[in-house]
Structure prediction request, 219 residues.
Amino acid sequence: MTRKHAGLKAFRDQAVHDRQTVIVLQTSMDAFFSHSHTDASWVEALARRLEDECGFKVWLDRWVLVPGKSWQQEMARGLEEARSCAVFIGTNTPEGWFKQEIERALDLQARNPDFRVIPVLMPDADPSGIPAFLSLRTWVDFRDGQDQDYALHVLRQGIKGEPVGRWPRKGDQNSAGVIQKYEQKIIELARFRSLGVHEQVIIDYERKLLDRWLDEGKV
Prediction:
């Protein structure tokens, strides 16, 4: 390889690295939440769960927008910086700026197949009100009467860009019974205290119970 070709190759490799770095820096949020203002409280409660329990970084307008600045520009930038967009559907069909957000998200997905647009049906949602351009995508269903834990799992997987997988997850069906069993045993130890059993004996037995519980991987 000539010195000239080596120089061109090094320049090209650096350009690719710089472009990849810019993409990583630009996608600083895990999910952009697009919703109607009438649903803001419900959406914010879900965003808190995803951040506190799952460690996601959620772009939510009432958390991010700066008073006095152009909210349209800030929201457009937020969408560009996210890896996915969750579109929340309630009783009303999206319209106005909400609809424009969805169209912008779909345009991003057309340019970047790794960008996910996730329709989320809220408790009072009417599936017939889902816009045609969202209906072909896998829904997250939080409607009344649906499995809320499963819905959260589906949303979490969508944000991560991973398959939903089997449900319930391995061990979920038995975990509640195991927890109840060990909790009951620990509660029963209180009876020994009333019979005058030495405190250290009770503590040692509690430790053994907790060790067994941990060994089963249920906590």
Q: What stands out?
A: Strands lie at 31-34, 58-59, 84-89, 116-121, 140-141. Residues 65 and 71 are 6 Å apart (CA to CA). The helical segments are 3-26, 40-54, 61-64, 71-80, 96-111, 148-160, 172-194, 199-215. The longest helix spans residues 3-26.
